Each structure stands twice: as structure tokens, then as C-alpha cells.
Amino acid sequence: MHAASPHDARRCDAALTHAFVVLGKRWNGMILSVLSGGEASFSDLRRALDGISDSMLSERLSELAANGLVTRTVAAGPPVSVRYDLTDGGHALEPALDQIRDWASVHLTRPA
Amino acid sequence: MHAASPHDARRCDAALTHAFVVLGKRWNGMILSVLSGGEASFSDLRRALDGISDSMLSERLSELAANGLVTRTVAAGPPVSVRYDLTDGGHALEPALDQIRDWASVHLTRPA
Fold first, then answer.
1. Positive or negative, the Cα torsion across A89, A90, A91, A95?
2. CATH value at residue B26
3. What is the rounded distance in angstroms from the CA atom of residue A52 to the CA atom of residue A64?
4. A57 is a domain residue
5. Averaged over A29-55, what is the pLDDT?
6. For chain B, what is the domain count?
7. Which residues face A82 on adjacent strands?
8. Is the ipTM here above 0.85?
9. Whole domain around residue B40: which residue ranges?
10. In which residue ranges of chain B is pLDDT below 70?
């Protein structure tokens, strides 16, 4: 009933694999979701992401920036102000995040 | 320009947080994506997920089953055959996975 390797065609789905290199890391999806509400400071993000450490948040923001999804803007002070925001590419993920949120609220009712 | 905690309202977005407890773990999104093409054996999945270890795949499949997204069916043999498939809840994620794939192919062109 099944060919030997029915899933081989999909092993090269590079786009989805790449997406989950980014989204399949703890916090990244939530950081993008928080920023979809508008730019935020480091402290805003830390407050919104309950339980994240400063070093982890800093590392994740750098990765998201390296992937072209988040910008970091330093405004001259005093006081110096650093704001994080989504790029166009980051904003483009919002419909998918909405869909994931709707899916989870219907289909992920059990505690993980 | 900003209230003290502009993102507090979203810290309790339990549905999205819960979604990323599941999807924000390496391999889970890809496992669901491979199974969206139809049921598969353990070896089919291992072949499709380049680089996953047996113990990791086994652990992930158990977690996805505990979250109600994957079924494990044992057919009496010989040879005994174990097949993995998506539940309705797992299938319901497919439109979001398609959207993530499209987003990644446009906006995630750089190597991670």
C-alpha cells in the first residue's frame, strides 16, 4: 500500500525547514508576536515574555535581526533609547501567527 | 509615546504560548508537516527528517500524541506494523504550515 519512501519528496522542503530553524526555537515565535503589536524596548519584551532571561532574550533578538525579521534602533539620548521592531518580513508572518493562535485555542486545549 | 507596559495585555495570550510550547521545539513542526502527506512508519519519518536520532523522534512522537495531534496505530503482524498519522487537530494545522512555508520562501532567504 505504501511505496518504500513515500516522504522522500518532502525531505527537501527547504523553506519549511528553514522556517522551523527560526520558529522551532523557544521564545522566537512569542517575541515576533509581541512585536507585532508595535515596537518595544528590551524591558517591554522581558516583561511580556514571562520567564525569559536577559541573556536569552538578547541572543534571540540578535538571531531574529540576523534573519532579517527584527530591527534594533538606538536613539541618541540622554537617555539612550533602544527600540526593537519588526521588519516587513517580520510583519509578513502575522497572518500565520494569527492562524496558529486560532488553531491552538481550538485544538490544543490540554496542558502541554 | 509609550505607556509603561504596552505589551502586558499580550503576556496572557495563552493560546499562542501553548502553540509554541509544542511548535517551538525542534522537529515538531517538521514531523507534523511530513505526516500531513499521509500516515508514515517510524522509518519513513526518520528518513524524511534528516539528522533526527531515534530517541529524539520517539520522544517527539510521544509528546505530539500526548497533545492530541498524532495517533500511533499498531497492526497485528507478522510483521507487526506501527503507523503514525495526524488526528483531526493535527490536520487542522496544515493551513498554518502552508502559510509559514510561503512566508519562509519569500522572507527567509538567508541561511540561518
1. positive
2. 1.10.10.10
3. 16
4. yes
5. 92
6. 1
7. A74
8. no
9. 13-107
10. 1-12, 109-112
Average pLDDT over residues A18-34: 89
Q: Cell for A84?
A: 526593537
Name the phi and psi angles at A42, rounded to 5: -55, -45
Domain membership flag for residue A4: no
pLDDT at residue B110, as a whole number: 55
d(CA A111, CA A75): 42
pLDDT of residue A67: 92
Determine whether the interchain pair B108/A15 forms a contact, defined as Cβ–Cβ distance below 8 Å. yes
The CA-CA-CA angle for residues B65, B69, B72, to 5°, reads 45
Contacts of A29 in chain B (CB under 8 A): 16, 19-20, 23-24
pLDDT at A80: 83
Global pTM value? 0.80
Flag whether B22 is in a domain.
Answer: yes
The B residues from 22 to 81 touching A (CB cutoff 8 Å) are 22-30, 33-34, 37-38, 40-41, 44-45, 47-50, 66-69
Distance of CA B7 to the CA centre of its chain: 28
Domain-located, residue B5: no
Q: Which three cell numbers stand for residue B13?
A: 495570550
In degrees and rounded to multiples of 5, residue B28 shows phi and psi of -60, -45
Contacts of A31 in chain B (CB under 8 A): none
